[in-house]
Description:
This protein has 2 domains: 1-40; 45-268, paralog of FGE (formylglycine-generating enzyme). The protein has 4 helices and 12 strands.
Amino acid sequence: MKRKSLIAIFLFLIITFLVFIVINSLKSNKNDFDNEIEKVRHISLGDYVTMDFVRIEAGTFWMGSDAEIGDSDETPKHMVTITQPFYIGKYEVTQEQWQEVMGTNPSEFIGEHNPVDSVSWEECQVFLKKLEEITGFQYVLPTEAQWEYACRAGTNTAWHFGEDDSLLSQYAWCDTDPSKMTHPVGEKKPNEWGLYDMYGNVQEWCSDWYENKYLDENSVDPLGPSTGDSKVLRGGGWGESALYLRSAYRNCNGVEGKNNGIGFRCVMLIR
């Protein structure tokens, strides 16, 4: 009887140990999966040229600014909900990447790792379509709401690093740079979500038509007005001061407009 009790206890301990191993293995696999979907996606364009995309989770944030802080077109400050995660470029699209996809380089400030400049909104659409043909993934320009949400990275301050504009040069190529030109992407500090050059270097095209004030006070996945004369630009460029490099700052240009301070970054759709 005593022998049977010992065997039963021994078997119970073995089963308990095995169950413990299985549970921990499942937890580990879940953590690995969670980490995997949050990783940067590395997309090959061929010839050792890649593009990196950072996964941005869904969430709610305050978009725009108060009239006394920014321009009137940044009002009203309102709550926006992004309901779906998305991948956004870790960096602005570079000249090397544009060259690989389009076979040309329209930039004024030449440098393969500099952001491509002097590209119109319409030319960006051609790039995005060709990029899809090369990689098999679908790409768009970020909506204005996606751009600001990604730029803020969970903050509600004038800049994603706070309210002290003396820190801006740590994060952006702007008017304090004596060279007065673009620079290779990723040389400055990123925001908290790992995105570089959200301020400065080049202004970035968004998908939305521009309106001189926001249409709704609170909204879900806003797409902007259905028509317009100009498309939204965000982030400010290499020649601009801190006031024009805030998270809420808005600019615009016609779909064929381009200059050496305009570029873009992509959003890769999740399927």
